[in-house]
Amino acid sequence: MQKKRIEIEVKVLSFSELSEEKKVLIEKAKEASFAAYAPYSKFSVGVAVLLENGIVVVGNNQENVAYPSGLCAERTALFAANANYPNVAPKALAIAAQTGGKFLENPISPCGSCRQVILEAEKRFGKEIVMLLFGEKNIYEVTSVRSLLPLAFDEI
Ligand code: THU
What we know:
It contains three helices and seven strands; from the N terminus they run E-H-E-E-H-E-E-H-E-E. It is an alpha+beta fold and about 160 residues long. The chain has a single domain, classed as Cytidine Deaminase, domain 2. Strands 1, 2, 3, 4, 5, 6 and 7 form a seven-stranded mixed beta sheet that branches. Helix 2 runs parallel beside helix 3. The longest helix is centred in the N-terminal third of the chain and has 14 residues, at about 20-35. The chain binds tetrahydrodeoxyuridine. Tetrahydrodeoxyuridine (THU) binds next to strand 2 and helix 2.
């Protein structure tokens, strides 16, 4: 038997350590969370996607009384970006979440389905997407969603 060890690297940063561009993207993700439709979970997530042409497309979670019919903020934002700018690669994506009127202290990480959709956007444009996961205490940064999705399904 062989064993394979997979390592990922996550940068842990404070807000002040970020570049101006990344600060702005996080602020836009936070702002987008206020427009979430989350009457069932009361958990509002905002996402801001920075495209290579400088345009920022935002999204937020959209819930439904028939639970699976809703959609996470990450997919809402990325699908909107791809629908409106099908030829422009996303280069960074910031995620922020709030509940009970407070942003989370620790970074929020996307669900498995959203990771797979973000990976598809990387594959589609052949470019990695920097991800910024916001928490009030600290921020996680990864250079690609592959860091969050080891052994991803992507070989077809
Ligand atoms: N949610 C997101 O929009 N993004 C995430 O990364 C995690 C969870 C949404 C789905 C649902 O509307 C609510 O948050 C609670 O799970």
